[in-house]
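Predict the 3D structure for this chain.
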Amino acid sequence: MPKTDIEIAREAQKRPIQEVGDKLGIPSEHLLPFGHDKAKVSETFIKSLADKPDGKLVLVTAINPTPAGEGKTTTTVGLGDGLNKIGKKSAICIREASLGPCFGMKGGAAGGGYAQVVPMEEMNLHFTGDFHAITSAHNLLSAMIDNHIYWGNELGIDSRRVAWRRVMDMNDRALRQITASLGGVANGYPREAGFDITVASEVMAILCLANDLDDLQKRLGDIIVAYRRDRSPVYCRDIKADGAMTVLLQQAMQPNLVQTLENNPAFVHGGPFANIAHGCNSVIATKTALKLADYVVTEAGFGADLGAEKFFDIKCRKAGLKPDAVVIVATVRAMKMNGGVARADLGAENVEAVKAGCANLGRHIENLKKFGVPAVVGINHFITDTDAEVAAMREYCASVGAEAILNTHWANGGDGITETARKVVEVVEGGTAAYKPLYPDEMGLFEKIETVAKEIYHADEVIADKKILDQLKQWEEAGYKNLPVCMAKTQYSFTTDPNARGAPTGFSIPVREVRLSAGAGFIVAICGEIMTMPGLPKVPAAESIKFNADGDIEGLF
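Done. Predicted structure below.
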């Protein structure tokens, strides 16, 4: 029996975090240790790097996720190790795990097999407390809004139009829609309210896009929390919560340094949802890594239609980042699923299904060319893959102008992905990257939504009622026209139907709701049935998470 991810992680020969920091030239006095194997990097040290040149930035993205698994984070970790194997000073940047999905469907994980980041258990649970700080800062603002209304409502807030919901880092469908302040005069004015999951909080998005504490406080102050009866906005700074929120987030703003199984540096910081928010690790972690390493490997959440698009159109645009290469992760198993094979039958060779399923991969390759960054396809190897199936994938990729390389990093760590590492270096040193966002800042908000839907999803049209169109126009007139759009939709398909696999055509994208994230600096377009507070499945992963007789955690995977 092969070892599980958690068994492999538990056997890791970890080095003291000071030694890991040493690889990047971070003095030990600028590491704030959390135990022996994780630390935060000080704000003072990060500011001292301002004049250093940047390394090269490589994005790892993927096809639309399937239950067969693609291994995007595994590839990100493996590629970082592979680059170090071939003599490049490399670091990786990934997101932190949310407790909700950890106890729900995913059971945790930061990579897999021999391409993991450790300490695995801590990273999947409380880690360094960043998400708790974000939850506290968000809910402090919620409490101060209700408190302001209770004590006379000097700002004239219309209590029916409080836009700021509460959050918690857990999947709990019962809290999606609630009634708050019941119980009489002493408890305030009853109103409808609700909870989102912490990773959907605008505070999370702000922390991941802010450059420093000053920028963080300004962005927090820009949050629109409610509206008056005349529909004029009330901002977080009007409630005077931005200063205290920044204080709560001071330590959370400092990037977390950990290590891979091969003791290479990994920054794990921030974690906005990819189908609800922009799905990338923090700007401050990415920029810090670029000052310290020659190559920085980062990932964007879910498939390239969601994660990579938001990475390019939101994160890179806002942070002034210029990526040098992209690796698109795909598997033979996922190609077969996209080609119509049932999950139970994935072990049997089916070359024709692989060929049929490659249309999904081909669309992602085509889409990424629109951003001007050269792409390489990384085939994440499974033991059931046959030579003929791998050859079919490679032939297809060659036919659409992309090179596909088979990677075995899950089984062999950095040694299993050195060919891709060398190819990435070749592509980067070729200097052909000419990053450009998909649409200009000055384009209208609805036109931006249409551009993403048509150019990336390949939809025929966007359906939105007059109320949504009027809302977008009002925001344009209020000075928000230049913001990018953050599309919230299912990760499983180019459409809003999670069961429409492959490369579907002849469909529409319905926009159900739009939200202004003025502090984060984007407009969220909620498409189809997407939840900002997920629920637990019928059999949640939490049922299997426990201590065993040896005192080790079981059930994380």
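The mean pLDDT is 95.
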